[in-house]
Specification:
Dimethylsulfoxide Reductase, domain 2; single chain; 4 domains; alpha/beta; 724 residues; 7-stranded mixed β-sheet
């Protein structure tokens, strides 16, 4: 049964699709991590078929197919949501039309607010939203729905953003992907770059300098096998190693003293802090030999163009200190602001750049202060939203929303998913709480996603390949999403749903300027002007298509010169000027997170589904063409084990086991892998128990961004027959 939209809904949707080519589309960025994979795909009888990636940004199939097919593949799957649904009197979800679904949302949410206050409803934006959708949602929720409970998914990318803001004065990634082709030394920390990001690895391979490649990683990976030097560090000791390297550079007078003096502050305090991390301490904590550590110190010293690339790896609660320590190494050696240098984070989700700067969660659009009256007036004038309706404080964190659900202060919840299907396994506390919510609305693409089965109303939304808008990559590049097809059935893009909800809620006039992705992009250009993230010089979406993306900053004056500055790759801080008031970078540090482990049979060790596990077709929800094995339905996860340990425990490939770890049980299917060192077990970062452990041990400074793995190594671990 199909429930078509009414005229107003259809009109809103048609305005989004006015520029879509009905026959073919070139170059939509992949919506998984937004590194730079660009794909050509064609419409064939109403559906997409894989084509070739653009020659200018070619990536190997292993890097495209897994993420790309996750978008186009869902269209033909029975689990794809295509019709709005509401829960009937029998407690069952049934199809309806958009006006009824929207009316129910408004009626119930306003009723909750009337009885319990504006912050009694919350919004979780867990999916991959475009820049325009992210900014629009921030305005709708905080100035329309008038709630401060707008949270996103905790991510290691946010840890990197905090570290950049501390060091540089603004969340401004220093390097660009082109630097991978110019460096003579590349230090990779906790990243299996060749498998997780083959497009970036291809740039490394194209490097005519034949760079020395160093891998700091507990795992034996495809990347470490191709490295010139592999430091198989003990899990959770990365920050200690990096501090020790910094100490050795200072001790040997191998720092760039002129750069430190002219362009940084806080070096004396840092030098005093890292004095404790001697080579002996590093050897004890990392289980590395002194020779290996000293070799890395010498390579960094000898390198003329040294680049640091890091990922969240196995010590997520310590990721903030890893980010700080890596940045400190780049600053003290002057390896920043020049071609082939800088620090790059390679595991940021596609919506991270937009979420941090334009979501109205951490700041007003463009990084403006909530409390600065002049900046509030600027935001109000451009956005069309009265200053009195703009938020005055930051939004709630994910953890605060969870606490509100637990104590009953949050009674209505709207989950904007668009791909958050694996959140239920990595956040069991959230999945368990959804059944207690007075009213639950879920905006999703798949019926098996978080909260759909418990929702009172379901809004079917669009995959990234069905959207029109912009994303910001980790190298500050704005790229245009070219939709190749319409959302199936009555599903709509997130932007259209937001627009319809604004009108239904009664705040449509307040948000009258936010009427289309192109219109919102014009607003955001103006909101970015004269900010560090200025992209006011970009004429329109078409210009992004012409230049295959443009990096910020790209000011109005740069745009008026014919776009010459738009082509090519640009890095920040080339003049040694940063965004702090004194224009100097700051050395920041904290004590590395103390591990709470003892020696036991096996150590808990993380393998990220978004990178290494996904590259092998593993993870909580396979994202490629492969179908999950039959055991998956019961086990949900794959546990990677070294064959030596498998022999010791008398385990075989694909055997179903349970792990008893303190008060927690974890069931999984064994997969033998030489990539996991003996004495460790690979546990996907979305394992159901991990968030519960993290909440007890995470550092206060990282309450917003705890990351993906916990610190407590397995205590009293035993392996049992699942039938026991």
């Amino acid at each position: 049964m199909s429930h078509r939209t009414d005229d107003s809904t259809a009109q809103a949707s048609d305005s989004i699709w006015s520029a879509v080519d009905e026959t073919a589309s070139d170059g939509p960025p992949c919506g998984t991590c937004q590194q730079s994979c660009t794909i050509r795909h064609e419409m064939d009888g109403g559906g997409s078929t894989l084509g070739d990636s653009l020659a200018q940004l070619r990536a190997s199939d292993s890097g495209i197919l897994l993420s790309y097919t996750s978008a186009v593949g869902h269209r033909s799957k029975p689990s794809r949501l295509t019709t709005p649904q509401i829960r009937n009197g029998r407690g069952e979800l049934e199809g309806t039309d958009w006006p009824k679904a929207l009316h129910l949302f408004v009626e119930r949410m306003k009723g909750i607010q009337a009885a319990h206050g504006p912050d009694s409803i919350a919004v979780l934006a867990l999916g991959s939203l475009s820049l325009e959708e992210t900014a629009f949602l921030g305005g709708l929720v905080r100035s329309g729905l008038r709630t401060s409970s707008l949270a996103g998914f905790p991510a290691a990318a946010s840890v990197a953003a905090v570290a950049r803001e501390e060091a540089f004065g603004f969340d401004a990634p220093s390097a660009c992907y082109r630097d991978l082709e110019l460096a003579d030394t590349i230090v990779l920390v906790n990243t299996n770059l060749s498998q997780a990001h083959p497009d970036l690895w291809e740039r490394v391979q194209r490097n005519p300098n034949h760079p020395t490649i160093v891998v700091v990683d507990s795992r034996r990976t495809e990347t470490s096998a191709q490295a010139d030097l592999h430091l198989p560090i003990h899990p959770h000791s990365e920050a200690i190693l990096l501090h020790s390297i910094g100490r050795e550079l200072v001790e040997r007078d191998w720092i760039n003293a002129d750069y430190v003096t002219q362009h940084t502050s806080g070096f004396s305090a840092l030098a005093a802090h890292i004095e404790q991390f001697t080579i002996d301490v590093a050897c004890r904590e990392t289980r590395l030999s002194a020779g290996l550590i000293e070799h890395l110190v010498e390579l960094i010293h000898r390198g003329n163009r040294v680049m640091f690339v890091w990922s969240s790896g196995s010590d997520a609660a310590g990721n903030r200190e890893i980010a700080r320590a890596v940045t400190n190494l780049a600053l003290m050696t002057g390896q920043i602001g020049r071609p082939g240098t800088g620090v790059l984070t390679c595991d940021e989700p596609c919506s991270a750049g937009a979420e941090r700067l334009f979501s109205n969660r951490h700041s007003l659009w463009g990084g403006r202060s909530f409390s600065d009256s002049l900046e509030r007036l600027q935001a109000a004038s451009i956005s069309g939203i009265p200053a009195k309706l703009l938020p005055e404080t930051g939004a709630s964190s994910y953890e605060q929303v969870v606490e509100g659900l637990q104590d009953g202060s949050i009674r209505g919840l709207w989950i904007v998913g668009s791909g958050s299907g694996d959140v239920s396994s990595s956040h069991p506390e959230m999945a368990a709480l959804l059944g207690t919510v007075e009213f639950l609305a879920v905006q999703e693409t798949r019926e098996n996603a978080l909260g759909v089965s418990q929702a009172h109303v379901v809004f079917p939304s669009a995959e990234w390949a069905e959207k029109k808008g912009t994303v910001i990559t980790p190298e500050r590049r704005l790229k245009f999403l070219t939709p190749s097809e319409h959302p199936p059935g009555d599903a709509l893009t997130d932007f259209v749903i937001f627009r319809l909800l604004a009108d239904a809620w009664g705040c449509g006039r307040t948000l009258r300027k936010w009427n289309s992705p192109a219109g919102v992009f014009e607003l955001l250009k103006k909101l970015s002007a004269h900010r560090p993230c200025d992209f006011s010089g970009i004429v329109d979406h078409d210009m992004l298509v012409t230049f295959l993306g443009i990096q910020w900053p790209f000011t109005g004056s740069e745009g008026s010169d014919g776009g010459e500055a738009a082509s090519g790759d640009r890095r920040l801080f080339e003049g040694g000027r940063y965004f702090h008031p004194d224009q100097k970078a700051r050395f920041t540090f904290d004590s590395p997170h103390q591990r709470k482990d003892r020696e036991h049979h096996l150590l808990q060790f993380d393998v990220k589904p978004s990178t290494d596990v996904a590259a092998e077709g593993l993870g909580d929800e396979p994202r490629g063409l492969r179908e999950p094995p039959p055991e998956w339905a019961a086990a949900r996860i794959v546990l990677l084990l070294n064959p030596v340990d498998a022999d010791f425990w008398s385990l075989t490939e694909r055997e179903l086991i349970r792990l008893e770890m303190g008060p927690f049980l974890l069931q999984g299917v064994i997969r033998l892998s030489d990539a996991i060192p003996s004495g460790q077990i690979g546990i996907p970062s979305t394992a159901p128990f991990r968030r519960l452990w993290q909440s007890a041990i995470s550092q206060p400074l990282e309450a917003q961004v705890r990351g993906l793995t916990c610190h407590i190594l397995s205590g009293g671990l035993s392996i049992q027959d699942p039938a026991a």
